[in-house]
Every structure is written in structure tokens, then in C-alpha cells.
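[worker-b] picked up task from shared queue
[worker-b] task type: protein-ligand structure
[worker-b] ligand name resolved to NAP; SMILES cross-checked against name lookup, match
[worker-b] sequence length check passed
[worker-b] input payload:
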Amino acid sequence: MSTPKTWFVTGASQGLGLALVKRLLREGHQVAATSRNKETLAQAVGNTSAAFLPLQADLGSDASVQAAIAQTISTFGRLDVVVNNAGYGIGGSIEELTDAETRQAFDVNVFGTLNVCRQALPHLRQQGAGHIINISSIAALAGATGWAVYSATKAAVSAFTEILAQDVASFGIKATVVEPGGFRTNFLTAESLALPQQPIAAYEDVRASHARYLQLNGSQGGDPEKAAAALIEIAAEANPPLHLLLGQDAYNRATSKLEALGQNFQAWRELTLSTGFTN
Ligand SMILES: NC(=O)c1ccc[n+]([C@@H]2O[C@H](COP(=O)([O-])OP(=O)(O)OC[C@H]3O[C@@H](n4cnc5c(N)ncnc54)[C@H](OP(=O)(O)O)[C@@H]3O)[C@@H](O)[C@H]2O)c1
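[worker-b] inference finished, payload out:
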């Protein structure tokens, strides 16, 4: 069991966020958690103790996030671990997804995460300690046909978390980006997943890819309880990982991608190195 800490978890009414919040409370941590609907969250967590602070927040609004963080600090007096978990999958080719559909995914998956980091950091800097854990996806590193926008949102999260870790290291703050494979949550259900309002019939490979993913719903290999335990484990580490892959599928996809990238770089090495000035 790890030393009790104060956690802030977004998107906690279901799935991985809910599993994490319940486990944290069982293990004696203090938890502030956000949801689009505070009542649904409070009911799902089912814990009325003073260690749990359910919050309603619109993550796309900097002001709403600022209020949620302020309430956390005024309730618990500090903030140790921030988990940016809220997010949703969006399928569809670039051409099929409208500007509004695409921006909405970036608003939640990317700008929501940036808002929470921006609002939490002044407190973490003042403390000279803290750990930001951003939930990305294996899609950030090794995406699949039909999920370009989702991959792009998560690639943004992975990329800025790598630099965030460097930018805040001197303040004693850690950052980790988590890249899960398939986990058995509501992620692939019609309620969570967004698909294009105007699909284009010609995108047969995209439809086939979506059908393969949707079939996985309910039988994904990843156990959210074990993912929650892994997050608690890294938060207790003095030197937590910069990247944490979760699941055998994530490990396989990431290592294959690494090999393919290495081969690509090697195959074109001569041309790459030929582009500098010779004098
Ligand atoms: N499950 C997987 O296979 C998988 C794989 C890779 C990455 N991930 C990532 O893991 C994280 C958790 O997802 P999950 O698997 O637990 O899925 P989930 O069961 O669908 O839960 C997603 C959570 O994100 C929040 N959320 C969803 N859409 C939102 C929106 N439009 N605005 C604000 N919040 C929203 C919800 O919070 P409220 O309803 O409480 O507001 C919900 O609790 C996500 O970032 C997801 O991209 C999941």
C-alpha cells in the first residue's frame, strides 16, 4: 500500500477513471474527481466520506477547470497526483469528419488536458512536488486505419507530455504519459465512441476497421482494475517512467512500430545525411 496522497482525476464516472477513483479511496488516498455530471459520478463512486470530492467540470473551459482545481486545494490543502483521464475515441477518415466533429475531439482530448495541466502547475510548483499522469493511447504511437483524428489527439498528448516532463523537472514535478491498448471499459460503446455523422461509402477499409474494433467491445484484453493499480504504482515511484505502455497489445504494437521506424531511418540514412552544407 502506497503513502496516502491527494489525487485529482478527470472523467471519473465510468471506465478507467472510475476504477482508479474507487481503488484510491479503498487504499486511503484523498480524491477529487471530475465529471460532466457530478450526480452520476457521486452515485457511481458511492463513497460519501470526506476523502472524496466529486466535482462537475467542463474540461474545455479554462475557468471551469480553474474552479475545480481551486476547490480541490481549498478542500484538501494540496495536490499530489493529477490524472488527465477524460477522453473519447473518434473514428472516421479526415474527409468524413467535419471541422466541428474534429475540433470537439481536440477540445476534450487535448485542450481539456492542457487546461488541467495549466491550472494545476502553479500549485505543484509552489509545493515543489507533484506528478502529472496523462492518459494517451497506443494510437498515439501506432495508430490504425480509420482513427486518424483520435490518433492525432493522443499523439499531441504524448508529445506535449514528453516536453512538459523536461520543462518542470527542475521544479521537482514529474510527468508520465500512459499509452494503453484495448481495455474493457465503455470506450467502444455507442455512448462513448463518436463516429462520423456523414460517412462516405467509398471508405470501405475504414468501415471494416471500425467493425473490427466494435466487435472487440466487452472482450478487450485489458483489465481496468489492473490499469488503476499500475497508475497507483508509478505514482509511488521516486523515478516514474516518462512513457508507460499498458497491455500486451500496446507492447506489441509499440515495439513493432519502433522496429519499423528504425528500419525506415536506416534505409534512407544516406539521403538524410546528404542534406547538410558540405563546407
Ligand atoms: N479503453 C480503451 O481501450 C482505451 C485505450 C486507449 C486509451 N484510452 C483512454 O483512456 C481514457 C479513459 O477512457 P475509458 O476507456 O475509461 O472510456 P470510458 O469508459 O468511455 O470513460 C471515458 C471517460 O472520459 C470522459 N469523457 C468522455 N467523453 C467526454 C467528453 N466529451 N467530455 C468530457 N469528458 C468526456 C467521461 O467522463 P464523465 O462521463 O464522467 O464526464 C468518462 O468517464 C480516455 O482518455 C481514453 O481515450 C482508452
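[worker-b] attaching auto-annotations
[worker-b] The chain has a mean pLDDT of 97.
[worker-b] releasing lock
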